[in-house]
Design brief:
This protein has 263 residues and is α+β, with helices and mostly antiparallel strands. It has two domains: 11-60; 93-261, Beta Barrel (OB fold (Dihydrolipoamide Acetyltransferase, E2P)), CATH 2.40.50.90. The chain is 36% helix and 22% strand. A five-stranded mixed barrel has the order 4-5-7-9-8. Strands 1-2 form a two-stranded antiparallel sheet. Residues 1-8, 37-42 and 44-62 have low confidence and may be disordered.
Length: 263
């Protein structure tokens, strides 16, 4: 067995390490007392190893908040949530909130509408952090709120901003009416979002919104039926295409909403 050679100045190095540790960990008097009591038993080499170990642990644990039940925290400096020690069981309930149709770009997410972000855009709160986080990491920081667990969702196949009217006052009043109608209908209501991740660097959720616990009422279709938007054909495939066309025809004949100024 090889003998371990210890430099003569090792004790001086150990004492410096202890002083550095004390400076870093002020306020942890009990821990320091325990370290000093153990130093006599460990010897110089053990003290140095202990100091390095505690320093490393202090560095690894240095963040702006305590870990939550899922093993992560919200970073105040960056405005982003991240995991330190993901909880082992955090995937157990995730399926209640999130189903990937095509990971990581298309899925189905359950949440609650908590705020409006425009006439065809809103913020959806996801109650279960792991489900929220799995989607949020695919989305630009500007379109998510990690502290509040909210995601911005743009509604597909509708665009109230494109009224086609030349009257700017009408456009302004119309958009206010649309946003008010959506707020009255959806605020604090449970929804299911059939989403796709779009937008490149400005990545965000866009999709169909279904209202209620069972997610039966198609909100995008409701907007077209009530004349809050034309049926937009440029947002990709729509398996409800025929229903949207029929809804638009009804709104046109009844001169509802956006069709008031169309002859």
């Amino acid at each position: 067995m090889m003998a371990l050679s210890i430099p003569l100045d090792w004790g001086r190095t150990a004492r410096r390490a202890l002083r550095a540790l004390a400076a870093l960990c002020r306020g942890r008097a009990a821990q320091l007392r325990a370290a000093r009591l153990g130093a006599a038993r460990l010897g110089a080499g053990g003290v140095a190893a202990l100091a390095l170990g505690v320093l490393g642990a202090a560095s690894a644990g240095a963040h702006s908040g305590a870990l939550d039940e899922f093993g992560g925290h919200f970073d105040e400096r960056t405005g982003v949530y991240h995991y330190h020690r993901p909880a082992r069981d955090m995937a157990l309930r995730k399926e209640e909130y999130l189903e990937w149709v095509r990971f990581p770009v298309q899925g189905i997410l359950k949440g609650k509408v908590v705020a409006m972000a425009g006439a065809a855009s809103l913020w959806v709160y996801v109650d279960y952090r792991p489900a929220y986080q799995e989607v949020a990491q695919q989305v630009a920081v500007t379109n998510r709120d990690d502290r509040q667990q909210r995601l911005r969702v743009d509604l597909s196949h509708v665009s109230p901003e494109e009224t086609g009217a030349r009257d700017k006052k009408f456009e302004s009043r119309f958009l206010q009416r649309v946003e008010h109608a959506l707020k009255q209908k959806l605020l604090d209501q449970p929804v299911t979002v059939h989403f796709a991740i779009v937008g490149g660097e400005d990545s965000r959720l866009r999709g169909m919104l279904f209202q209620g616990e069972a997610g039966k009422e198609n909100v995008n279709l409701w907007m077209v039926l009530n004349g809050w938007s034309y049926y937009v054909l440029t947002d990709g495939d729509n398996k409800y295409d025929q229903l949207f066309r029929q809804a638009e025809d009804i709104a046109r004949r009844q001169k509802s909403g956006i069709w008031e100024h169309v002859r």
